[in-house]
Amino acid sequence: VRILRNVEKFRTVFDFGGRDVAHWFPGHMAKGIKQMRSNLRNVDCIIEIHDETLDVRPHVLILNKMDLADLSRKKRILQKLQRDGVKNVLFTDCLKQRDDSINNVMMDVIGNTERFNRDEITNYCVMVIGVPNVGKSSLINALRRTNLKKGRASRVGGEPGITKAVLTKIQVCERPIIYLLDTPGVLNPKIENIETGLKLALCGTILDHLVGEDIIADYLLYSLNRLQKFSYVEKYELQGPCDDIQKVLKHIAVKIGKTKRVKAITGIGNITVTVPDFTSAAYDFIRCFRKGELGQVMLD
């Protein structure tokens, strides 16, 4: 009880320290958007895995990684999306071996929609879009396993930027013949504010080193404490909740055995000393959050 009482003294506002991560738009993103637009005439449906808008074709909105999310707000999320005119919404976990729900909704959408200039074509083409590291390639592979009983055709990874360009068509269904286009993850060229940028970085949408593992880890600690999600205490065997990221990272580094050797200047010459590796500790802390090992967290 005494330890939890100290939580009342924790930060209520995060100090961004004048940092700026509001511009992260690599060349492959600009190229990817251009390629997507040029391919729209050949597309029957868009599967959207975030809130980017390409209002040209019917689309399905996939809210992926449901195994990591706090779904207590699911009803409220659906109601808001319906008010915004978004009808086909699915909560999914595309790392599963099969996903019939996506398949069924996709089939329904493309089977009941005008085909614009593609009436004479017997096969279908679906474009998958979304922010980096949201699970687009995993979705394509899940559909191939569901319909074709085949393994992955699109490379996946745990960091943004795996897919660099709009790829050739990937077949995901035999009857009817359906192809999917994988696309590079894209962000808005300008992120609206620093906190939005940190939330994107925390979710793995922006490469960690572009923001800094230390600042991402500190924002994660601040957010967990603010939401009173203290599972990190048990995970890393801390004495109790802590608001000092340096103390937390030092403890994590010792626990996972991550150290580094650095030179120290003393009055008798230079010596090499072993110190905790705070960067490795920060990465481990962030990785555990992304894998859901720190509990289900909803960042407002």
Briefly say what this structure is.
This protein has 300 residues and is of the alpha/beta class. The chain has helices at 2-5, 27-39, 74-83, 100-111, 136-148, 194-202, 208-211, 213-226, 231-235, 245-256, 278-290, and strands spanning 45-48, 59-63, 89-91, 124-129, 170-173, 178-181, 259-266, 269-276. Helix content is 36%, strand content 14%.
Question: Would you mind describing this structure in some detail?
Answer:
36% of the residues lie in helices and 14% in strands. The strands form two sheets. It has a six-stranded mixed beta sheet with strand order 3-2-1-4-6-5, with helices on one face. It has a two-stranded antiparallel sheet with strand order 7-8. It folds into two domains: 7-17 and 191-291, Conserved Hypothetical Protein Ylqf, Chain: A, domain 2, CATH 1.10.1580.10; 27-182, P-loop containing nucleotide triphosphate hydrolases (Rossmann fold, 3-Layer(aba) Sandwich), CATH 3.40.50.300. Helix 8 (213-226) crosses helix 11 and helix 10 packs across helix 11. With 300 residues, it is an alpha/beta fold. It is built from eleven helices and eight strands. The model is unreliable at 51-56 and 160-165 (pLDDT under 50).
